[in-house]
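Lab meeting minutes (informal)
Scribe: AK
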Amino acid sequence: MKQKFDVTGMTCSACSAHVEKSVAKVPGVRSVTVNLLSNNMAVDYDETASSDAAVIHAVEEAGYGASVHAGAASSRPQAKAAPAADPMAAEIANMKRRLIVSFVFLIPLFYISMGHMMGLPLPHFLHGTANALVFAFTQLLLTLPIAYVNRKYYQVGFKTLFKGAPNMDSLIAIGSAAAMIYGVVAIYMIGWGLGHGDTALVEQYSMDLYFESAGMILALITLGKFLETRSKGKTGEAITKLMDLAPKTALVEREGVEAEIPVEEVAVGDLLIVKPGASIPVDGEITEGSAAVDESAITGESIPVDKGPGDRVIAATINRSGYFKFRATKVGADTTLAQIVALVEDAANSKAPIAKLADKVSGVFVPVVICIAVIAAVTWLLLGHTVEFALSIGIAVLVISCPCALGLATPVAIMVGTGKGAENGILIKSAEALETAHTIDTVVLDKTGTITEGKPRVTDIRTADGLSETELLTIAASVEKPSEHPLSTAIVEEAARRNLSLRAVTGFEAVAGQGVAAEAGGVRYLAGNRKMMEENRIELGDFAEKGETLSGEGKTPLYFAGEGKALGVVAVADTVKPTSRAAIEAFGQMGVDVVMLTGDNKRTAAAIQKQLGIGRVVAEVLPQDKEREVAKLQEQGRKVAMVGDGINDAPALTRADVGIAIGAGTDVAIESADVVLMKSDLLDAVTAIDLSRAVIRNIKQNLFWAFFYNSIGIPLAAGVFFSVLGWKLNPMFGAAAMSLSSVCVVSNALRLKLFQPRRAAASNTNSNQREKINQKEEIISMKKTMVIEGMSCGHCSARVEKALNALDGVTAKVDLEAKTASIETEGRVSDEQMKAAVTDAGYDVVSLS
């Protein structure tokens, strides 16, 4: 059983490491992952050997608090109920109160204790040896409120210390308590000196009270924790934004009556109504109406998607225009939005391998620091220095060594990184996948649905003389319509796109391995491959060569014949997605080798390879063989990412170091892949690897500075440089440095929010394509003038006009008096075809220019 728990009292990575060790010792626990950033813990345990209570007891025995997480209680705001308290907001508010109180008392404390050193005036009753006791006692009274509002450091710190697992709070508690205890001892010594007339003793201890150090340490640590917590609150913004997307209510139709109900009450099967501008409350399928749906929040796709009956809609997407009804298919935690939130949270809560280094160090770091502090203090005492000097050294070591920065280095970057991925429609399932992705040096791409659209489309039409594209396509679609073959579907869809009216056919026959045949208007038509034409003794002529050329381009030529002669050839192909070339080029720029796997024949694969510049292609591969190809690459020492559609590629996705499912929506994709891309865009796979590299680079920066800070700070605090350079670290500066280090680490991680997907290449490619299209349109949109002989009346000119306008892409206007026809053509028919049309109508063409 997997269970999530909320853990209280953790302040540093030493805490999380100790909680993890304690729970791991519970019988029946298979795995445990503690997240310091979100203060929760995921435990996988055997229900027959353990229980929630046993896990909670182990956490409490370790010195912390625990409770079962409220669960995915809701991935959307609760309707009617009062909004749940935000733990992060409550913590920030509490720390803000502590901070205000701390500085209200710290400022006069600092003024009284240090003001005379800066030449600042002090009240008369605090001056001189006679008033030393008042001077010291006033500082104690000002320090006590600071200690009280920050008592959490003592409660947690000493509790964990006595449990044998000291943490960051233990260092603060020991350091500040030692300073305060020394101050209290100093008050007694001042009293003794005043009572016995020992002026020297009074002056000595009135100058070494250390109350200001204790107060300053607590205040500065709290300031650092406040800034750190406020920054940490920003790391989960992506999840919060997702959770806030879903509406609180839904408009449901029950028994013909519309009613607005809380979204929690929507049940599977309910019929819901969505009006323009409204958010879609749950997942479902449209039953009536149509709309343009903005899915940018879920998929990152900025352009609204047209939806109609039978199409799927996703919770939290927005109906930009139109009105529709849909049937609820998934509600509550089953919706796509809830699953995305769960995936992002799980990824943020999981541990990357690089985090284990910090955890191991943090687990022994605090006890080692305490030992260093004691050894340093004792050593300086043995060297003949005063107790005050040795105490100052010990406190400085304790305060500057808090391992906050070390513990925050990884989880903050992971959380920001996974959140940033979710913003761009990239769902990273675990921190391990996020880390592994940066090592990828080879990307294996499935062709169909990944590089290409996954759906055949008509790409070329070649016709016989005297036959227009429109006529050939009408015949082709009429003959192919009864067939269920994907190539037939592509031709029928092209005819529908051009709004062509199809003819009724009879005697339809499908010839296995060749094509189809049918009769329309008394003519027997054939549609199929070259073998079909040859067996029916159809002379292809130039079409044979044209078909070979199209085949060489990776297209499938379909030949059409009627009345024993060839009518033309229509090429159908699975077209390459607009961004695929840009993505493959981007992989190359990143130093990642690209391998394409496809079940297509070698000729088609070679055409795609040439078109996109892919380094290596493996053709005629069965789905079960793709996993073997990935394994071969891994045996060569490659780190492999497999990008596929998540269904027939599931074994290869699982085998790869990082499996990337392109196009979410299937359970298999989410289960098999480490990364799920919500859009069917190969550029998002590039972004995923880019994001991984950015996150790992950020983590390494954080760890470097955390280790560097401690490696410099601890020797400095211990007085290593005092004998040679006279450098000695004041505990107050140590507290400030520790707080600053944590804030710096969190702030550095937040820079990841500035990460931008690699879209420049795609934009350039798309703009180039648009430019080529525009140039093409300029070339083919032409005006011509035809001089015609033989027209003598309005009927003649009308007959010529009709003949020309019947041609595909031709618009003609005939001037009877001038004996000319003004023609606008899109270039789909040749000059010879236009001349032939007029000649067939019974007139002579003098010229065409």
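Next up, CB showed the second protein from the same session:
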Amino acid sequence: MPGENLTRDEARERAALLSVDGYEVALDLRSAVGDGGAEPRTFRSVTTIRFRCSEPGASSFADLIAPGVTSVVLNGKDLDPGEVFDGSRIALEDLAAENELTVDAQCAYSRTGEGMHRFVDPEDGEVYLYTQYEPADARRVYANFEQPDLKAPYRFEVRAPEGWTVWSNGAGELTDGVWRFAETKPISTYITCVVAGPYHYVTDHYERVLEDGTKLEIPLGAMCRKGLAPHFDAEDVFLVTRQGLDFFHDHFDYPYPFGKYDQAFVPEYNLGAMENPGLVTFREEYIFRGKVTQASYEARANVILHEMAHMWFGDLVTMEWWDDLWLKESFADFMGTFANVGATRFTDAWITFANRRKAWAYRADQLPSTHPITADIRDLQDAKLNFDGITYAKGASVLKQLVAYVGRDAFLEGARRYFKRNAYGNTRLGDLLSVLAETSGRDMTVWARSWLQTAGVNSLTPQVLLDTEGGRIAELAVLQEAPEAYPELRPHRVAVGLYRRTPEGALERYARVETDVEGPRTVVAELAGAQAPELVLVNDDDLTYCKVRFDETSLATLREHLGALTDPLARALCWSALWNLTRDALLPARDFVGLVLRFAGRESDIGVLQMLHAWANSALVHYAAPGWRATGERLVAEGALRELRAAGPGSEQQLAWARFFAAVASAEADLALLKDLLDGTETVEGLTVDQELRWAFLEPLAAHGAADEAVLAAELARDDTASGKRHQVRCLAARPSAAVKAQAWAQVVESDALSNALVEATIAGFGLPSQRELTAPYAEKYFAAIERVWRERSIQIGMDVVRGLYPAHQDRPETLQATDTWLAAHADAAPALRRLVLEARDDLARALRAQECDEAAAGR
């Protein structure tokens, strides 16, 4: 990987020297289907780049990662590939003012989800291809200048096996056996795209009359593998797509600029989705093979709208370098929820944002690798790791705060001016701040310094002083704290809500004030004289980004009456705050688990309920004292089964509790029930045990030795699909056997035979918390292997291995010491690799602190 890196300084130097007029890329993918022998490895890629050089006679380089190069021709002169190509770069000497470079290469098909990924469907043997490039893998498919600020128009042509269809960013047609695509607008390399194969393809259309009276018509398409076609609800995908296009046209005042709008759901995808203009790619898991809750449909809609927002924030206007990745990802993350609430049936999406997306941000912002939203991205490895909770969810949270700060109208008008001024160009932070300053009349520099250029998360705690009779508020203040490492106290626009129980027992808000919190203590004068509250909720309505704390009275109220909170967003915020207290070792894990068991059954928002299940499981696995885990597991399994049986037949809650019960089942009676549900000898009224739920039940059976290889093989025969294969591989690796763990380790660490999806599945099955003793020997092997893995494997696989196989379940001080020993001995290791290890260490240290807190609770 180090030889494939590109530094920010190199990119800036090249951008100052070169400007690109256009690309012509010809790919021959006919080798993809093979000839019945060995798996095909390469395809032909011929690229012609027309570009200018501001300093004739200067030298530069083009990017290409390929097994072989047949020819390199620069300005009509044949160059020796052996002399100018080193495996990742093509040296370009003595450039003219105007240049033409043609590179004929043999590029490699990928099995890691990077570059040109090749997938063979086990169900029918069909081959499917797609590309994925961000941040810098277009060079695995064609020669280019791989940096976002060297934009250019592209013309693609593709030869493909007979009977295939090919798609790219522009509209295409098949003539004389070649798919030729319309020239794109100027775009960056990382958002070019090719999808090819016998995909199932559905069409629709969108039209709109613009303000000038012209009609905008956008052809819509959606595709997936043929094997998934029976499950493909394209109508709902198109519905959300049309709603999103309406919403963004209403608010952006800039017509969608990229012609058609195809959406491809592709196999073995590393990401959620990718915003390639005209051809968005998604992981195919967004096509649901079984029954799922509305939270899954909401999440899919959010991703569709997130990627659509990128057509403006990211594709039309692109950051100059990855430092300003937030200029696209933070905005798209915010706009995904903003549009979901404003345009679709998912009007409660801000609850999901507050509960789920912000949890990701809070975790990332407390890691040693936290960084400002505008990050310091030194090279491509830094860039790859910065697609994180800071760039996405914290950035989106800060934008939500910005809307409250400058006003919705000023914010949207700023966006409109930003698009018009910078269309098809590249920008930095200042370009956006300048238009927001214009439209809001506010000086954005102080806000940007506090929110975009500093790291860390503040905590806001209410301080309530009552009058002498105790019935009224004498003074209410908000205390702001910051971690020692990041002491910035930021300006917050917050709502402070006061809650009391009604005579009927409901916990409801009776007063609310919006105010600006600045410095360590802010008095909320408007609330003086109000009736004494039972609960004070700082950051009511979730206007700012902070960790919410509670005064003693409020925390006591939540312990007894959390389920009585009638407002679903307020409940979600309280649950999130309680989870942060648990992670910060301020609330014992067993107390959090107890709150979930007591009140989660009354949770009406299905997305919040599923998040509570995940948090309760994490509390048991990571934060509960080891001596209490068995008790906690029994209590949680009993509670999950109780709620499963009590849930409405066929309801989303019933399905969610069934999945949670399977996730925590370990007792013999619980495993026997799962087997009976699989066999049909026992049923739960209204619960349909479809194929996806069958696999969910089989994993704990496999992990506890109640489903052997023959059972899993029989299930695969029942579900002989790509999805079934991933489930089977995970279950096989989950079996409680030393030989199984050794085989799984070898398949992932010592071999590159598995595809990215099967690597992920194997890792998931290998490292189960219930098998701590079985995986203990691999802690030492992990530290011995990771530097080699990072050096030899692709960055995606390297990330999967380093994150996924860290011995987090060996949760004792000795593991921390082993981690520190490795870090001390590998000070010169790749910074991105060290970052991953530091993050894993921090998670483990946090778990040990929480376990101490929980252990102390045992003596209460």
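CB comment: The chain is about 45% helix and 20% strand.
No objections, moving on.
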